[in-house]
Design brief:
- It is a single chain.
- The chain has about 220 residues and is mostly helical.
- The chain is built from 11 helices and no strands.
- The longest helix has 27 residues, at about 105-135.
- The radius of gyration is 20 Å and the shape is elongated.
């Protein structure tokens, strides 16, 4: 692993566990065991590290979303893609937990996030239209109502990390993976929009994934 990659990996771990505001570039260099000057050679400011981590997050998210769009007819793949997306947001969770402060301080991050949000919303909208056209979702929603419902789901998706970190900390066992709990929560929010065919398809695929994870 290169020094630059060590800096990014260590910074991500520290930002996630101790808090973005509580970590300085000097703390990062001391944790890695390199000089402060060596760290500044690669990243002159902590802000530069944050910008690079945010770009890495977007790059990984882009890849996952494009894969999801390419396999919208495979329910198992869709659910696994959702699980992967949630694991990805948890990997870079400091960006969500400190999102307000980071976007206020870093205008480019805010702009990139807004641009990507429009792209992701469009992909999810197209997936929803596919599900409606193939009888998996009811077609009793207007286009405006559908977009509002999807926006609500995106709000939940973007806030689940904060819920886990703040509100659910005492309710769950420590060090337990609760991604599947939040996936169940998301699907409970859309269950009323699914037809019997849709409920059966999603339930069957979800059960297969759970059983496979248990066997693994």
């Amino acid at each position: 692993m290169t020094t630059k990659q060590k800096i990014l990996t260590t910074s991500l771990q520290l930002f996630n566990t101790i808090g973005y505001a509580n970590i300085s570039s000097k703390t990062i260099s001391e944790t890695i065991g390199i000089s402060y000057g060596n760290l500044c050679y690669h990243f002159p400011k902590k802000d530069d590290i944050v910008m690079r981590l945010h770009q890495n997050f977007l790059d990984e998210m882009d890849e996952s979303m494009l894969n999801l769009k390419g396999e919208i007819f495979e329910f198992d793949f869709m659910l696994r893609s959702l699980e992967n997306l949630m694991n990805l947001t948890y990997k870079y969770r400091f960006l969500l937990l400190n999102g307000y402060d980071i976007t206020l301080k870093h205008l480019p991050i805010k702009q990139r996030t807004m641009e990507r949000s429009k792209v992701y919303s469009n992909i999810i909208y197209k997936i929803s239209k596919f599900l409606i056209e193939n009888g998996y979702m009811h077609d009793n929603l207007s286009d405006k109502q559908l977009k509002l419902k999807l926006h609500g789901l995106l709000i939940i998706f973007n806030s689940w990390v904060a819920d886990k970190a703040v509100f659910s900390e005492l309710a769950f066992e420590e060090n337990k993976d609760h991604t599947k709990y939040y996936i169940q929560l998301l699907f409970s929010m859309i269950s009323s929009a699914l037809t019997k065919k849709g409920i059966k398809a999603f339930s069957t695929a979800y059960d297969r994934i759970l059983n496979k994870n248990v066997q693994d």
